[in-house]
Amino acid sequence: MSIDRRSFLATLGTLAVGAATGCRAARAASAGAAPFDRIGVQLYTVRDEMKRDVEGTLARVAEIGYREVEFAGYFGRTPAQIRAALSANRLTAPSTHIGFAELTGASWPRILDDSKAMGHEFVTIPWLAPAERRSLDSWRRVGDALNRGGESARAAGLQLAYHNHDFEFARVDGQVPLDVLLASTDPALVSFELDIYWMVRAGHAPLDYLARHPRRFTMLHVKDSTGAPEHKMVDVGAGRIDFRTILEHAARAGTRHAFVEHDQPADAMASIRDSYRALSRITRTLPR
Q1: For the domain that residue 71 is a member of, what is the CATH number?
Q2: Considering the domain boundaries, does residue 288 fall inside one?
Q3: What's the domain range around 253?
Q4: The predicted structure's pLDDT at residue 34
Q5: What pLDDT, on a 0 to 100 scale, did the predictor assign at position 33?
Q6: Which residues of the chain have pLDDT under 70?
Q7: For residue 182, is it within any domain?
Q8: Does 103 reside within a domain?
Q9: 129 belongs to a structural domain
Q10: Number of structural domains the chain divides into
Q11: Burial of 218 (0-12, 13-18, 19+ CB in 10 A)
Q12: Among 66, 118, 178, 202, which residue has the fewest nearby CB atoms (within 10 Å)?
């Protein structure tokens, strides 16, 4: 996660409020489908393109072959404009990223209403500021906040989710913070979006977490690594991560969505195109 993205996330709550759109087909579209047939993309990857032209960017995303998108802001578009663009391109939006501060802010009820109106299934917390994770007690307070936010999300017909980076694996008082969150949150209220790259970069195994916590990791972020020690982030298929094995285990563990992402692509559209081609070749080989 870059400093630019930290600044970007600070605006997510504001962008979400008043941006309700309708893509209620998300659940129906994925029901009964083979594992990961509907490949998604986190739109943060194409954030500069979205800033310039939301409708045109969504059209290009769909032309590549994506069928799901995960939002990271709505860039001033009205609900009708976003809804029309998604519908015109046969896209659904199962998830949106919302800043952690919004969980306890005055805008949280409105964000839930907007997210429900959009047809999102998940409202996902993608980042914690350093002050929110400085101690074990801090992590426990995060877990408590996620449970409270998850309860209100469930009441609104949604599911709260938490997305990891690598800092969740830096031990605090001998404990792994992600383990603390998994243990302290109610599975009925809080699910997780496993970012494969960041977990691998931190030296932990996605297969281990999928096996130990079935049905907790409902979503994946898919981006590749060149491997230790540098762990340069690269497009899917350009690195060393064994995505086929991970996706096969994830499907068995109840994971439902996979979103391609690259935090700092040199050419965003080329990046999501190349990652789509590589990931679609993998998903076609998964057991049905």
Answers
A1: 3.20.20.150
A2: no
A3: 3-283
A4: 67
A5: 56
A6: 1-34
A7: yes
A8: yes
A9: yes
A10: 1
A11: buried
A12: 202
